[in-house]
Backbone:
């Protein structure tokens, strides 16, 4: 028995490479939003482009994850190869933003394509981790989602540097990074010891998995989390600009956007470690509670001095993502092993569909209400998620 445990214990390089590849692959996610001012000039679109650009990625991701889930791609084929191929095609689509004087429709198509192939990166990366880490999955996914967060914040970091003034650099760096990450993972990470491949296609898998009560409740908690997450991330730059205007301050938009999003990677890692002691349920519940409180009192945050405003937004940036990996851990733990990849992908698909609704809602409200009240509608998500988790506890 002990020798068998040694055989299936993951090698030390496995998790770091998955984390690095996840960071690299997801760096293309917010590349369009990081250069949104330049895209406004090229396309002639106004402030509404913020919602359009990210929603196109989200919509592509939804269609991609739905396709991957329906065809059970992550369970029928080698996840490492799926990851590599997806990363390369996501990089190609991202590179498409370099087209000179790109039209609005072509821009949205390139972002849609990027999102579609991200479906083979984010949930498949979690599937690969789940295939290696049957125990301590909360910790592994915490670090993995931390890499995802850092990848999404990375374009803002590139843009904040002096050589980031040339927006082409943001696109080129993120595209090459994504492709390199996919190739690295495929070369160095074989299929995991806990992988159970599905031998045949079953189009009803997505429906049947929701019959499991534990799975359904974890998924509903995740859906509430997703209502808040991406809308918050998308409009952090707007919040900083609004604060600057309201208080005549000089907060550096790109730098603080990077910091508020990127700090979530640290929170994910801490949440993953704490989950070993307290469990994924408690981490999810309290993270969602904190971010919900930030949503509820967001109008007051805009009235605070700049240092308090930034501190609370950093705390919010940590809380808003800490629960993501833990929800995925709960979902993966409740799904049958042979359809774990499909279950994770399907829940991602529905969650990102929900995120489009909240993004578009804030896009609609952005020039119609006082900026201080823009984040208030996001409290709906945490309230729903907390209700789902409280119901699970009873």
Residues:
């Amino acid at each position: 028995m002990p020798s068998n445990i040694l055989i299936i214990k993951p090698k030390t390089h496995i998790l770091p490479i998955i984390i690095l590849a996840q960071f690299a692959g997801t760096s293309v996610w917010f590349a369009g939003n990081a250069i949104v001012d330049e895209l406004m000039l090229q396309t002639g679109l106004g402030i509404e482009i913020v919602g359009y650009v990210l929603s196109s990625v989200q919509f592509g991701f939804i269609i991609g994850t739905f396709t991957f889930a329906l065809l059970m791609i992550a369970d029928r084929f080698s996840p490492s190869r799926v990851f590599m191929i997806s990363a390369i095609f996501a990089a190609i689509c991202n590179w498409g933003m370099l087209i000179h004087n790109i039209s609005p429709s072509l821009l949205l198509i390139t972002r849609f394509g990027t999102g579609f192939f991200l479906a083979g990166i984010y949930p498949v990366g979690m599937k690969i981790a789940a295939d290696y880490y049957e125990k301590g999955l909360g910790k592994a996914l915490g670090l993995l989602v931390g890499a995802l967060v850092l990848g999404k914040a990375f374009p803002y970091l590139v843009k904040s540097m002096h050589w980031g003034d040339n927006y082409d650099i943001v696109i080129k760096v993120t595209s090459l990074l994504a492709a390199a990450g996919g190739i690295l993972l495929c070369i160095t990470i074989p299929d995991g010891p806990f992988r159970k491949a599905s031998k045949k296609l079953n189009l009803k898998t997505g429906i049947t998995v929701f019959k499991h009560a534990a799975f359904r409740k974890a998924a509903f908690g995740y859906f509430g989390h997703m209502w808040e997450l991406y809308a918050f991330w998308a409009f952090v730059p707007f919040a900083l600009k609004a604060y600057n205007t309201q208080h005549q301050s000089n907060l550096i938009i790109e730098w603080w956007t990077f910091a508020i999003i990127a700090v979530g990677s640290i929170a994910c890692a801490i949440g993953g470690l704490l989950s070993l002691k307290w469990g994924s349920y408690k981490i999810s519940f309290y993270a969602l509670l904190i971010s919900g409180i930030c949503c509820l009192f967001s109008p007051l945050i805009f009235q605070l001095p700049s240092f308090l405003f930034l501190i609370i937004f950093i705390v919010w940036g940590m809380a808003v993502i800490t629960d993501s990996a833990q929800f995925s851990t709960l979902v993966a733990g409740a799904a049958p092993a042979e359809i774990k990849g499909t279950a994770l992908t399907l829940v991602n698909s529905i969650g990102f569909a929900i995120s489009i609704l909240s993004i578009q809602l804030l896009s609609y409200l952005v020039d119609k209400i006082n900026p201080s009240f823009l984040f208030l509608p996001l409290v709906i998500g945490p309230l729903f998620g907390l209700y789902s988790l409280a119901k699970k506890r009873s």
